[in-house]
Amino acid sequence: MKISYTDQLDTLLELPFLQEEERELGELLLAVGRGEATWANVLVQIETMEVLSVVYIHLIKALGTYFNDDVTTLDREVQLRLWVVLLHKMGKCWSTYREVEGDEKTEKNETSVNNDFEKKKVEKNTWFILLGSVIAASEEIDNLQTFNLIQEGMKLEIQMIIGMLTPQKRTVFAPEHQWETNALVFRKINQGDHALLQQYFTPSIGQYLSIDSFSHPVLVKAYIEQSQEEMKQGTCLVLLAFERDSNRFVGCLTINDIHLFSVEIGVWVSEEQQGKGWGSALLEQAITLIETSIPTQQIIYTVEKENDKSITLCKKKGFEFDRELILEPTPLKNKYRSMLRFTKKVIAASRG
After folding, report:
1. Domain holding 249: CATH number?
2. Is residue 210 within 8 Å of 330, Cβ to Cβ?
3. Would 152 disulfide with which of 36, 84, 246, 325, CB 3.0-4.6 Å?
4. Same domain, 51 and 194
5. What pLDDT score was predicted for residue 68?
6. What pLDDT, on a 0 to 100 scale, did the predictor assign at position 103?
7. Per-residue buried b or exposed e for 132-168, using 16+ beta carbons within 10 Å of the residue's own CB
């Protein structure tokens, strides 16, 4: 299939500020258009690239025009993986440009990239052009047919990242903010919680979670630092729960991937506190907190297929089955995971 914007890409490749790897990617896209290379070759190329390249603008156009309803299972997988890799590269720049989204001096068009050779301005303009293109493609991505549960997992990841990148206002809670119920006190995780996590987050607890264990101090430190950084941006909330009367540790609730379309929640209860109804209390607090303080439309609760207790719990709280998917191995969870996704519509209460 001939790519319709070949002439535009040829012109782009003449720009003097392009790095060698960007030119190689552009030439590769042209070769795909001529039938001389494959999209798998493109995937390998962009996985190794460090720069937020202006060539990605044409990659997004290609992802929307080259693939159609007649694609094979392999074609769809490569297309989805290209989206995942591209969006992760954009995500690395999100914290840099999220605060300047309304800057009127930023020209959000391709001409501004072509005419401005200053590296930082090129990257900034490229970011906003890519962001607009990605948001414009979101409906098309929503309608993509998947051929297996792994592809379904990738598609959901793509939708989540687009939701995270979309400009929006987020709720950021003060570091000292606490939440209380009749029986529990919740506070944000902090640097002093290393020993607590190592003690209570056991392999048994991690069996059905995205992390196997916190046995190594480096993992604990990295998790806490990452959580604190994301909480400053309003994209997650990690709360530790304690008995109100005795201050004994109960467990943890997390609200992750916070954006205007959805949030994802998870809870775990320490082994010694299980069987006391605390899991239900933590889940109820997560729902209440979201409905009163976090502007979003849907709560997602994803559990492993074999985790019968969590499935029963979320159904009791009004969650409905949405779909099945498979998550691929990660450095912190080295196995394929068969998952069930449940959702609950947010009924927004008065937000204070």
Report:
1. 3.40.630.30
2. yes
3. 325
4. no
5. 72
6. 46
7. ebbeebbeebeebebeebbbbbbbbbbbbbbbbbeeb
Q: Which domain holds residue 129?
A: 9-96+112-145
For residue 165, what pLDDT is reported?
Answer: 96
Which of 88, 11, 16 is CA-nearest to residue 46?
88
Q: Is residue 126 domain-shared with residue 213, that is, in the same domain?
A: no
pLDDT for position 280: 98
Q: How far apart are the first and last CA of the chain?
A: 55
* Residue partners of 134: CB distance under 8 A and separation at least 6: 60, 87, 90, 162, 165
User: Residue 86: what residue type?
Assistant: L
Residues 74 and 219 in one domain: no
For the chain, the domain total comes to: 2
What is each CA distance from 332 to 191, 212, 311, 318, 335, in whole angstroms?
A: 20, 7, 23, 30, 9
> What b/e string do you get for 325-338 counting C-beta neighbours within 10 Å, with b at 16 or more?
bbbeeeeeeeeebe
Among 236, 352, 241, 342, which Cα is nearest to 291's? 352
Q: What is the DSSP letter of 106?
A: S
One domain, residues 187 and 330? yes
- 117 occurs within a structural domain: yes
Handedness of CA 12, 13, 18, 23 (dihedral sign): positive
DSSP classification of residue 325: E
Same domain, 187 and 322: yes
Q: Of 306, 310, 300, 301, which is closest to residue 337 (Cα–Cα)?
A: 306
Structural domain contains residue 309: yes
Q: Are residues 135 and 260 in the same domain?
A: no
In a domain, 172, yes or no: no
**Sign of the torsion angle spanned by Cα atoms 248, 249, 250, 254:** positive
Q: Are residues 88 and 193 in the same domain?
A: no
249-256 and 237-243 as β-strands: parallel, antiparallel, unpaired?
Answer: antiparallel
Q: Is residue 4 a part of any domain in this protein? A: no
Task: List beta partners, residue 330.
Answer: 333
Q: What is the mean pLDDT of each run of 10 residues along the chain (352 residues)?
A: 62 87 94 93 95 92 80 94 97 81 48 58 89 95 95 98 95 96 98 93 88 80 94 97 98 98 97 97 98 97 96 97 96 91 89 53
Distance in angstroms (rounded) separating the CA atoms of residues 79 and 146: 11
